[in-house]
Specification:
With about 130 residues, this protein is of the alpha+beta class. It has one domain: Pnp Oxidase, Chain A (Roll), CATH 2.30.110.10. The protein contains 4 helices and 8 strands, in the order H-E-E-E-E-E-H-E-E-H-H-E. Strands 1, 2, 3, 4, 5, 6, 7 and 8 form an 8-stranded antiparallel β-sheet that branches. A hairpin with a 2-residue loop joins strand 1 and strand 2. The radius of gyration is 14 Å and the shape is globular. This is Nitroreductase family deazaflavin-dependent oxidoreductase. Belongs to the F420H(2)-dependent quinone reductase family. It catalyses: oxidized coenzyme F420-(gamma-L-Glu)(n) + a quinol + H(+) = reduced coenzyme F420-(gamma-L-Glu)(n) + a quinone.
């Protein structure tokens, strides 16, 4: 099974032919800029399309800390995204209130473990909206 850096490499080399469809769900690649280093970091993330946007979850498996990619995009919300062979710039923002409440079931429908992760942590797991740049 693809995971981590190997997942990113295979996805990029094959334009998502390997790595987009993963574990009965779909994965995009998110590239953020390191908030301290300024270096690009690419992370494979489960996603769902929602209108013209893409939705991802900063679950980190229910860890008490937010994942590094999420901390990076909070510091700089201008990100790069790859969905299969399509690459584009996007603006990331954290869903809040009713918007988050409405998007959570969309994401748990494709990855039910998100509900389990909420039981492992006291933090609210962020739901992130990636809005392609116009």
């Amino acid at each position: 099974m693809l995971y981590g850096k190997e997942h990113v490499r295979r996805y990029q080399e094959t334009n998502g032919k390997e790595g987009h469809d993963w574990n009965n769900t779909t994965v995009l690649l998110l590239t953020t800029k390191g908030r301290n280093s300024g270096k690009p970091y690419t992370t494979p993330l489960i996603y769902q399309k929602h209108g013209d946007t893409y939705v991802v979850v900063a679950s980190h498996g229910g860890d008490p800390e937010h994942p590094q990619w999420y901390k990076n995009l909070v510091a700089d919300p201008d990100v790069a995204v790859q969905v299969k062979g399509e690459r584009f710039k996007a603006h990331a923002r954290t869903a809040a209130g009713d918007e988050r409440r409405d998007l959570w079931p969309l994401m748990t429908s494709v990855w039910p473990d998100y509900d389990e992760y909420t039981k492992k942590t006291e933090r609210q797991i962020p739901v992130v909206i990636l809005e392609p740049a116009k």
